[in-house]
Amino acid sequence: MPLIIIKTSEPEVSTDRVEQIHEQAETILSSVLKKSRDYVMSILEFDQKISFALESGSPTAYIEIKNIGILTPEITEILSKEITAVISKNLGTNPERVYIEFQHFERHMWGWNGSTFA
Amino acid sequence: MPLIIIKTSEPEVSTDRVEQIHEQAETILSSVLKKSRDYVMSILEFDQKISFALESGSPTAYIEIKNIGILTPEITEILSKEITAVISKNLGTNPERVYIEFQHFERHMWGWNGSTFA
Amino acid sequence: MPLIIIKTSEPEVSTDRVEQIHEQAETILSSVLKKSRDYVMSILEFDQKISFALESGSPTAYIEIKNIGILTPEITEILSKEITAVISKNLGTNPERVYIEFQHFERHMWGWNGSTFA
């Protein structure tokens, strides 16, 4: 952690663009959550079948952001703004068609390197 | 939110059938949770490699349902019944091979339109 | 439940190897969590676009483990060790590039067979 999973209805973009999205999203998580870039993971899933607001033909994204440590309303507000901008800019998604789920975890509920952070 | 993600071991079905599953699932969430259809998102993932009860050859589904606001035992009971029926009817899945995870969220833990619902 | 979802950056492996990963992961969950194998579900997702620690070219995995009933620090420690070993052995993934998210659920927050475990 921190970790971000981005599911988009858009078809796969170029490798360069994929790397840019990874890099921009990870930089935001690292900066806002004050965690080293070395611990940030990001996952992109293209071509998802997503319907939203009675419509499935427009670019739509569903994002999950996970962290060890409390995510306050102030933090989720900033993350929502900045991550939505990345999606909008790189994939042409209308911000009104972007949902983000936030979850925080206790240290023993996150595994890494065959152990946990407890 | 509400949001539903349906992962099925079944191969992709026709576009018409995909739209029917979206429509039926979203109608149930909207109706049971008393939220506008305009805020319901549904995601379908086909061809998933799923093993359950020591067996991976039969149609199997794993579903996640997420909502802002408490999901009581009464509500999850109704949603499990109605959503499982949609999967069973449209994809031929035995209800005994359907799992549903329910999660509820505080308002600041859900982002939309570059902000949150806080 | 218990349920495990394994997302790996590695390309799809042979059907035999897929079955082995299912079997090994399910055996561990059943044994450590003391639940019947009949109720364990496992899902494998290959070819995921994952970036971690500023790098997207090495085998990387993100895993979710879900259970009804409390997951103590002792349990998550054991599961992290054993499940990471399965990933490392079968997919050649460095344990330092494996994250595992753990979540536990109340009985009414898990649906099965058109009902819940409440």
Report on this structure:
The structure is a homotrimer of 118-residue chains. By secondary structure, the first copy, chain A, is of the alpha/beta class. Helix content of chain A is 32%, strand content 31%. The first copy, chain A, is built from 2 helices and 7 strands. Chain A has helices at 15-33, 73-91, and strands spanning 3-8, 41-45, 49-52, 61-68, 98-105, 110-112, 115-116. In chain A, strands 2-1-4-5 form a 4-stranded mixed sheet, covered by helices on one side. Chain A has a two-stranded antiparallel sheet with strand order 6-7. In chain A, helix 1 packs antiparallel against helix 2. The longest helix of chain A has 19 residues, at 15-33. The mean pLDDT of chain A is 97. The A-B interface holds A 7, 48-54, 56, 60, 62-63, 71-73, 76-77, 79-81, 83-85, 95-96, 98-103 and B 1, 3, 5, 18-19, 22-23, 26, 37-46, 66, 105, 108-116, 118.
Can you give me a brief rundown of this structure?
The structure is a homotrimer of 118-residue chains. With 118 residues, the first copy, chain A, is α/β, with parallel strands linked by helices. Chain A has helices at residues 15-33, 73-91; strands at residues 3-8, 41-45, 49-52, 61-68, 98-105, 110-112, 115-116.
Mind sketching the topology for me?
3 copies of one chain form a homotrimer.
Chain A: E1 3-8, H1 15-33, E2 41-45, E3 49-52, E4 61-68, H2 73-91, E5 98-105, E6 110-112, E7 115-116
Parallel strand pairs in A: 1-2, 4-5
Antiparallel strand pairs in A: 1-4, 6-7
